[in-house]
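Q: What does the predicted 3D structure of Putative peroxidase-related enzyme look like?
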Amino acid sequence: MTAEVLSSTTISRLRVPEIDELPAALRDQISSLTAQLGYTPNWVRAFALGGAHAARFNAYLLALLDPNGGLLPYVDREILATVTSAENGCSYCRLNHAGSLGEALGDKRIGTRVAIDYREVRELSARHRTLAGFASRLALHPTDVTDADIEGLRELGLDDEQIYEAIQVVAAFVAANRFSIVLQVTPDDQFFG
């Protein structure tokens, strides 16, 4: 990867660091993500200003949405991430996860519609509607999460570890949304192709 790959400041309100300025772990992470996706996502480029902190945050975030990992099915984690991003009004994450959710559901239209407003998607399963409602409440009004909300997740068959993972996904995306919104990270061209 060349230095010019990370040099554009048009993707963020703040400076986008050159690749050679970054800690080795972050350089390796960006290189791996670029090889996997075929392009370097603007969010990882913009977040790179955080250096070692960005590498740790990225590793946490990427692990939570690893299609081959996690305690919850990947599609459930994408529902949580997409709804959280939509509720927070994060255009970058909303566009990114509309596509990922659409792929996970096998229906890009539903993924896009969830990213606009899950409440209007009557095709959502009861499970995904419950997860979406939980993500919405936790993302916007965490003090309003009640025992009944937790019990609703248990009624889906989630154990405490899976509920905790759901909380982690929402909380991590609340943070990522805040970074993306404040930095005004420009959505990748790939989201529109």
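A (community wiki): The structure tokens above were generated from the sequence. The chain has two domains: 22-64, 74-186. Confidence is low (pLDDT under 50) at residues 1-9.
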